[in-house]
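Lab manual, section 2.4: Encoding a predicted structure.

Procedure: take the sequence of the chain (295 residues), apply the prediction step described in section 2.3, and record the output as structure tokens. A sample record is shown.
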Amino acid sequence: MSIEQTVKPRRSVLYMPGSNARALEKAKSLAADAVILDLEDAVAPDAKEAARDQVIAAVKAGGFGGREVIIRANALGTSWGSADLAAIAQSGADGVLLPKVESAGDIHRAEQTLKNAGAPDSLAIWSMIETPRAILHLEAIADASERQKVWVMGTNDLVKDMQAQFVPGRSPLLPILTFAVLAGRAAGLTLLDGVYNDIKDADGFAAECRQGLNMGFDGKTLIHPSQLAPANETFAPTADEVTFAKQVIAAFEAPEAAGKGVLKVEGKMVELLHRDQALRTVKIADAIAQQEGAG
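Recorded output:
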């Protein structure tokens, strides 16, 4: 999979309740790379159908600028799931987020439902990885469909189902998150870290963003607009990183570097793999600038 195909800024991905009309309107002006308009956890059972109609109308009306617009459906096993997918297929959304994915079969069933409803090829599948059974089937889930582009870690549900505890540093989750990064990267997926629940704990949130970046995540899912700026800053290349990346690219493009696999740049030894990383760094920085320009 080429760099051009995979690079897209998803530093900040904000959940917005589909039943809240004001929230849907506010989503059009927030500094989020993507918004998830939620029909599942954030919507009470007796409001599901009204929320679906409201979200579909909002997406069709547009006005979200350069933000990716994703709709989280209810699971196919619920009484709302099939109707959600059929509506999302024709909504014009960029993607559908599938909850509680536990097997390749879950992806296949959702994909067939979308196809039957006439979903365009451009409609991406995003998958919630949020149950112990999903963790045991990560490789199969990762390879289930070309339409699947993104994994979202559902850390709240994982901790609950594991009967674990939320602790600073997330030690109960670290093996799971690492395994998910490995499986997702092997399949060329974008990986989004789970939410941070304490919106008043700015320092804790910043630390968890940095941890997610260090582990290999592309961005973080968020539950409040106050978390947008820290996530955007953490998951974006720094100015120094972009400058050095451009120097690495230029060094390998120089005529005297022809045929060489190792060079010295600013006192550091760099290989072709570092050039590839540099290309991605510059492309993601350019994509972020374009995204922010699109509003």
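Check your result against the sample. The radius of gyration is 20 Å.
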